[in-house]
């Protein structure tokens, strides 16, 4: 009579499996046996093989080869189509059979490629053993069954560098984990043992010399801390995080301000901003935004863009033009250059002792006959812009707050998406997170730029002949629009966060913070003057 696991025992196994599946076992995963495969071989002497491409198996492929050696029935190996997912090996009552499951990244069922995985490091997360999870065996007629797990080294395409371990089941087992330490793999190939940090292929042989044998395995994992299926690039990023290379957070938790993992460009490092002039030299802040070390200043005649508007010495229209006065022996000529005090001076050479009969009027540049005069600020040839009797106000503190408000909005979105990925890491979700983070960062950078596009010193200038009035309305409106976009994006992420994480209290707190951050930004924007007086270089002082 054919011996099978009784329906009652199967029910018990199913219930225990559901309970065990609820516990998240953190380990490198070899195979969860998701993805349906059924392979049947007819005795005597029949064989069959099937390969399946699946993301749930090491190397993206699972090959199953089955033999029914003696008897009149069949040997069947299958993966269950629904949860709890399992690998099942079953022999009819009079059949002696064998099955071989291998993982080598290839779709050739009949041949193992010893180097097919390219060198997967099974030790990178601290793993020291394989675990056959929740193994069940019915021990028919008190007959043992032998499992052989073989690991091949990727450095040897001949397959002669390998290590193997045999596990003999001498009793009935019901949902018991079987631990196979790497150190127990004492059977070696002719070219030596495997390096578990350079795995090229892995195979599991089930030798069913016992007739009517039935075996089940829930999954095959390692005993490390990372519960991912490794690729040739591994499952531990350069920051020590358990992440796949396709994860948008891969190598990000320890990235420096230019994105280099464990790099040296940290907050406080020098950087070049997007602004011209003296505002070009910057320093990375705690959020790795490159901020100017100096704020815009009043434009002087010194060959430097002091007011960070992209123009140099633009308030001194006489700079470089011909200067001097007189004719014949009284002629004095040169060009206007910048003086030591930030104004203009004429570089002409002259001798006052030879100019007694010449025009004795001396300009502020020291040149007889020059018409250059000091402006009301004491600057020779200046336009009054350096001290235009303006009522000035420093709004740098508000600019820092506006900038920080946008960063906080982005940080809330980053926090939610990271929690979502920890709760459910899937390709579709990862793509959504990547697009969302790109959008959030673009909006944040835009509002950061707008925050510092506002003049740090806003002025109301009564000397209208030296000043013109400009508007900040467009900058502020664009900033408000950016804050609205970040708020709406955050609320959209919070909605998805609730569906995935299912934590209503956390979702409510995030929504509250998102709305509060936006309101704070709006209030800050309202404190910035909508107009200001800016000194003009249009006055002709000649």
Write a brief caption for the model.
The chain has 542 residues and is of the alpha+beta class. It is 23% helix and 26% strand. A hairpin with an 8-residue loop joins strand 9 (145-153) and strand 10 (162-169).
Strand elements, count: 25
- Amino-to-carboxy terminus distance: 118 Å
Helical fraction equals: 10-25%
Radius of gyration: 39 Å
- Helix- and strand-based class? alpha+beta
Please indicate the percent range of residues in DSSP E strands (runs of 2 or more): 25-35%
Describe the secondary-structure layout.
Layout: H1 7-21, E1 29-31, E2 38-42, E3 46-53, E4 61-70, E5 74-79, E6 87-91, E7 96-103, E8 129-137, E9 145-153, E10 162-169, E11 173-181, E12 187-188, E13 199-208, E14 214-217, E15 219-222, E16 270-272, E17 281-284, E18 290-292, E19 322-325, E20 332-338, E21 344-346, E22 391-394, H2 396-423, H3 427-453, E23 457-460, E24 467-471, H4 473-501, H5 504-526, E25 531-535
Antiparallel strand pairs: 1-15, 2-5, 3-4, 4-7, 5-6, 6-14, 7-13, 8-11, 8-14, 8-15, 9-10, 9-13, 10-12, 16-17, 17-18, 19-20, 20-21, 22-23, 24-25
Helix pairs in contact: 2-3, 2-4, 2-5, 3-4, 4-5
């Amino acid at each position: 009579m054919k011996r099978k696991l009784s329906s009652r025992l199967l029910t018990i196994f199913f219930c225990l499996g559901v309970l065990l599946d609820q516990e998240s076992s953190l380990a490198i995963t070899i195979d969860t046996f998701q993805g349906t495969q059924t392979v049947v071989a007819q005795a005597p002497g029949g064989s069959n093989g099937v390969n399946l491409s699946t993301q749930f198996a090491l190397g993206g492929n699972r090959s199953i080869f089955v033999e029914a050696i003696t008897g009149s029935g069949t040997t069947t190996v299958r993966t269950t189509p629904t949860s709890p997912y399992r690998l099942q090996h079953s022999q009819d009552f009079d059949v002696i059979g064998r099955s071989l499951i291998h993982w080598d990244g290839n779709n050739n069922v009949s041949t193992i490629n010893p180097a097919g995985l390219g060198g997967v490091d099974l030790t990178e997360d601290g793993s020291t053993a394989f675990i056959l999870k929740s193994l069940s065996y019915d021990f028919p007629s008190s007959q043992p069954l032998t499992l052989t797990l073989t690991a091949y080294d990727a450095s040897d395409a001949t397959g002669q560098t390998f290590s193997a371990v045999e596990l003999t089941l001498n009793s009935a087992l019901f949902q018991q984990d079987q631990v196979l330490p790497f150190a127990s793999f004492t059977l070696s190939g002719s070219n030596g043992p495997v390096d578990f940090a350079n795995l090229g292929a892995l195979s599991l042989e089930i030798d069913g010399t016992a007739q009517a044998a039935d075996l089940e395995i829930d999954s095959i994992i390692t005993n490390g801390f990372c519960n991912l299926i490794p690729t040739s690039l591994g499952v531990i990023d350069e920051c020590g995080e358990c992440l796949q290379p396709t994860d948008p957070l891969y190598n990000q938790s320890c990235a420096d301000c230019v994105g280099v993992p464990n790099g040296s460009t940290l907050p406080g490092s020098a950087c070049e901003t997007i602004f011209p002039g003296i505002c070009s030299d910057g320093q990375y802040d705690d959020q790795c935004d490159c901020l100017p070390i100096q704020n815009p200043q009043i434009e002087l005649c010194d060959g430097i863009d002091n007011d960070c508007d992209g123009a140099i010495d633009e308030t001194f229209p006489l700079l470089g033009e011909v200067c001097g006065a007189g004719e014949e022996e009284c002629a004095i000529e040169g060009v206007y250059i910048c003086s030591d005090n930030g104004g203009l001076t004429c570089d002409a050479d002259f001798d006052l002792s030879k100019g007694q009969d010449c025009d004795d009027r001396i300009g502020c540049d020291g040149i007889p006959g020059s018409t250059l005069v000091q402006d009301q600020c004491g600057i020779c040839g200046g336009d009054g812009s350096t001290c235009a009797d303006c009522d000035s106000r420093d709004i740098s503190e508000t600019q820092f707050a506006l900038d920080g408000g946008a960063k906080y909005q982005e940080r809330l979105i980053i926090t939610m998406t990271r929690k979502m990925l920890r709760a459910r890491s899937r390709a579709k979700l990862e793509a959504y997170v990547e697009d969302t983070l790109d959008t959030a960062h673009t909006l944040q950078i835009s509002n950061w730029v707008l925050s510092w596009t506002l003049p740090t010193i806003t002025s109301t200038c009564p000397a209208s002949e030296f000043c013109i009035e400009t508007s900040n309305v467009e900058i502020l409106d664009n900033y408000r629009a950016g804050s609205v976009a970040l708020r709406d994006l955050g609320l959209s992420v919070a909605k998805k966060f609730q569906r995935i994480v299912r934590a209503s209290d956390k979702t409510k707190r995030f929504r509250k913070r998102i709305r509060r951050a936006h309101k704070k930004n709006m209030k800050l924007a309202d404190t910035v003057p909508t107009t200001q007086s800016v000194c003009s270089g249009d006055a002709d002082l000649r």
